[in-house]
Design brief:
about 375 residues, D-amino Acid Aminotransferase, Chain A, domain 1, D-amino Acid Aminotransferase, Chain A, domain 2, 2 domains, nine-stranded mixed sheet, about 25% helix, globular, binds 2-OXO-4-methylpentanoic acid
Length: about 375
């Protein structure tokens, strides 16, 4: 297998961004993790090296057939100065589920989680501490065999890169307007919607552009077969507060099995809400929105955390949710989730893992 993790430290550290003005995914830290796979040899040459470009052959399969998967996770600095990861084992479990679906060889989850912790320790001065910021972690795997046959690659590269980030959506905790997409679909059951693979995101971009052009921030996706069941919003799972119940679409096979979704379900139940994971049609949702029983709506995701929805557009109609304001349940979920992730409050679910003490030396 991988053998020992080698570490080559950078001799040319980069200037750090001003963490008061971070956006999402712009800056990368000084180091990255890489590991290679060759059929017959397995994963090997696991190392942490200075961050930089990787040489790729134009015939590499990832460019032509999209055989690639990724994850998104975060590390946070707490008030005690400790850096913590949030449910990282869940991300590596899902990484391997995505690998299986995309015919990519699985990784040793414990080995890679340990390598990630070493990477964070090395780049610990990059973990931002301002409220609303975190270190975004992007593990990914790509097919690197140089061959134009459309069959599984014989060679792969797995990498982890790190990026200090602030809110994913410019609106932050301000409610966004979303548009129900009735033409394009993101994924279908039996397809790859449940895998975190690039094509799902590429497939969503045209509808996203059209929604922007019409003055909306995100798209509300419907199922790909009957075009009547609500699936996801943007690149997040979605929740609706209908009276005192919270409804979220059940995992149909075409929806991403979100780790923030799962955490939100646990926390909302802990707040005392009844949470229903079930199919919900756009007609039912619209009816609740029109009669005022749809009090709150929000999306959940690692990058976006908890993102409130204030208005829905569907064909030529629009309806406001909760007078277009961020609802109390949405705000409480955001506050309690982020405080738990940062280590500001007791980790009553046992979800965080301490990595090391921070060395915050931002300019
Ligand atoms: C995440 O939430 O981590 C994702 O991977 C979504 C991506 C569009 C940033």
């Amino acid at each position: 297998m991988q053998g020992e993790l080698k570490i080559e430290q950078s001799t040319q550290l980069k200037p750090k961004p001003n963490t008061a003005n971070l956006s999402f995914g712009v800056y990368m830290t000084d180091h990255m993790f890489t590991m290679d796979y060759d059929k017959g040899q397995g994963w090997h040459d696991a190392k942490i090296v200075p961050y930089g470009p990787i040489p790729m052959d134009p015939a590499a399969k990832v460019f032509h057939y999209g055989q690639t998967i990724f994850e998104g996770m975060k590390a946070y600095v707490g008030p005690d100065g400790d850096i913590r990861l949030f449910r990282p084992e869940k991300n590596f479990e899902r990484f391997n589920r995505s690998c299986r679906r995309m015919s990519i060889p699985e990784i040793d989850e414990a080995f890679v989680l340990n390598a990630l912790k070493e990477l964070i320790k090395l780049d610990r001065s990059w973990v931002p501490s301002e409220p609303g910021t975190s270190l975004y972690i992007r593990p990914f795997a790509i097919a690197t065999e140089n061959h134009l046959g459309a069959n599984p690659s014989l060679n792969y590269k797995m990498m982890i890169i790190l990026s200090p980030v602030a809110a994913y959506y410019a609106e932050g905790l301000n409610p966004v307007r979303i548009y129900v997409e009735t033409r394009d679909v993101r994924a279908v059951t039996g397809g790859v919607g449940e895998a975190k693979t690039a094509g799902n995101y590429a497939a969503s971009m045209q509808a996203q552009e059209n929604a922007y052009a019409a003055g909306y921030s995100q798209v509300l996706w419907l199922d790909g077969v009957q075009r009547k069941y609500v699936e996801e919003v943007g690149s997040m799972n979605v929740f609706f507060r209908i009276g005192d119940r919270i409804v979220t679409p059940s995992l149909s096979g075409s929806i991403l099995n979100g780790i923030t979704r799962d955490s939100a379900i646990h926390m909302l139940r802990d707040f005392g809400f009844e949470v229903e994971e079930r199919p919900i049609t756009i007609d039912e949702l619209w009816q609740h929105a029109e009669d005022g029983s749809l009090i709150e709506a929000f999306g959940t995701g690692t990058a976006a955390v908890v993102s409130p929805i204030g208005e829905i557009g569907w064909e030529d109609k629009t309806v406001k949710i909760g007078a277009g304001e961020t609802g109390e349940c949405t705000r409480r979920l955001y506050d309690e989730l982020t405080s738990l992730q940062r280590g500001d409050s007791e980790d009553r679910f046992g979800w965080t893992q301490t990595v090391c003490r921070a060395e915050t030396a931002q300019s």
